């Protein structure tokens, strides 16, 4: 009896590695600390009422960003562990198995649990404000999306202390990710955690598409929308058409692993290549899901801080539409070397190169926006300006990789790794840091400190180049990705060492930013005007932080730079006196999303361990929550006029 | 959530059917169409998977060995008729006839149950008589999951319609219940369309090719 319990526990918890024990201890300590603080300050009720049950898009956005920052930290620690292991030839900081787990969780977490939720956070905060709406189309569903992402993220992160992490790479190619070659629970965590948060992502796509199509302020035609809102509209369409394919792929892999089906196995007619196709049919559009929104952020930020209207607005939109279309017909370039015929490779080679055209058009439009602008070098603007050259390097090396015959040389080398980090860091990461600084005052009512922000920027940006520029050459010298060590004498050592220095520099940059967040929370400059950047779009027309109902009056829009026009009219004395307030219809808070996600987590955890006695009640709980929601009828309230008056007066908006 | 943010103002909404008469109803119906677009991709992927794996029988039974025309025709007939009765329920909804709406939705549920029963029986026969299970071959994995996903959708639809029936009985036809009945109708018709593709891509080609 005792033996079987010990045996169970030693498999249930990951054992034998001092770093894991350290992680166990720190997780336990942090959890206890959080619970103690909440109890000591009697904050449980506040937490439940203000945050856990909220359906306010701004609060959901803030929760997304907090969670994403934590995930960035986790993924960053993974990266530093890998760089430490590779700093010199023949190190044994991580063994091969541990290294496999670390690069798998690094990739999965950075894409699915850090980049995407960060973007979802920014779009939650900015899109309704930019289009003059009081919330998203489906506020309840929005909360469900967030909590599903959160449940998935927690489930995934649990893997490294309970049961063992996935180790088949973020792309989890079959047959290696199948049950015969990968029998533990690690890959179960991957398929289930990613699935749970993926359902939330799909719901977000639908939610924002409907929000943008149907809830724009009067007068805001599609081609008068701010560019960030345009980018989210297009991203939402990509999500709707790409994510279901991944849902299916993950479900099939789950069924293979849990119930012995033969979709991706080698035996009984299964097709491992089918996984590669399904994965990348989602996976390639996915990179545009995390890129197009930051194109939108950069467009708004560059126009704001060049104090000029965006150059080539319509072309910018059509470029994004072209990219979104092309993103669906390039997936095969991820496996040129895996036995396709020459005509197939040629088609995907050309379709991939075509993406450079609309992207190049966008780069030139940003440059022309800067041309003759009054450029103001704020922190968000620095991120945006650094994006242009750094991202272009990633783009150009992408075209190099797109040449199928040449790809046989680069494939799965560090050249490729350098390429996608150039796009994902110089694009996505620079973009979300840019958006974070840009919209921070709108979220919290104070600004992040400029000086520390600029320090973080320079340290991070220079370190990024120290880390990833040499990596291209390392790839051309023959080092392949996913090697856990390498012998001395190949000439790879010095370059790897320099890269490791760069990686830790990026860590320092991130730490400065984290310090800035804490420092500014105490000493940050208050944003009393609601318009700290001399903004051009509607989110800057309201108080900071934005009131619960966003707009006391729904604005009427006549131009692309709606708020800029309003300010000009005010200066010219043409502003109309505001109409009297009317009660505002708002959705009620609901505990169902967080409870439903808790059931989802229980179900997911049960399936990971083949514990159907646990999984089935979890699934039943989810269905019960859906039914319970269907019977809720009093799901809205009105904010009375005097409360609106009080709020507006407190924000200094009534004179 | 303000009324004025939509292209239609309250006055124009008066001329619309009940389910479109509020902004909320309008938004949710549009949202559901978007969801159906996602479902289309989901089933498209499952069809693609099935068609890729169709010939990968791995020494197990083939489509010709398994599929019998009788049960499949019965399933098809029942599901198509249920789609028709579902359409009748929407017609009654437009006429604001609560009794007719409830009756036709109830008939739809019963036909749905019959369909699920027939399909379960078909699967049971394959498993017990032919030894054709999910684990036998890639072809059968694809078959059971494609049809199983459709069958689960129908089962969920049954539970969903049942919930809406309770709400209709309690609250009558209001803008909210009208919207719910309308949306579940969209869902049901969508499943019918999927079945037509299943009938063609799985059974017809299974018999012929």
TrEMBL record, chain B:
Where do the Heme-copper oxidase subunit III family profile domain residues begin and end? 1-207
Biological processes, Gene Ontology terms: aerobic electron transport chain; ATP synthesis coupled electron transport
Where does this protein reside within or beyond the cell? Cell membrane
Which PROSITE patterns does the UniProt record give?
A: COX3
Q: Which family does it belong to?
A: Belongs to the cytochrome c oxidase subunit 3 family.
Chief localization: membrane
Decide whether keyword Nucleotide-binding is in the record: no
Protein EC: 1.10.3.-
Indicate the transmembrane segments per the record.
30-52, 72-93, 100-118, 138-169, 181-204
Q: Tell me the organism.
A: Sporolactobacillus shoreae
Q: Give the way it sits in the membrane.
A: Multi-pass membrane protein
Top EC group: oxidoreductase
Q: Which GO terms describe its cellular component?
A: plasma membrane
According to UniProt, the reaction catalysed is: 2 a quinol + O2 = 2 a quinone + 2 H2O
Protein's job: Catalyzes quinol oxidation with the concomitant reduction of oxygen to water.
Report if keyword Membrane is assigned: yes
Give the UniProt keywords, A-Z.
Cell membrane, Membrane, Oxidoreductase, Transmembrane, Transmembrane helix
Q: Identify a single GO molecular function assigned to this protein.
A: oxidoreductase activity
Q: What's the protein called, per UniProt? A: Quinol oxidase subunit 3
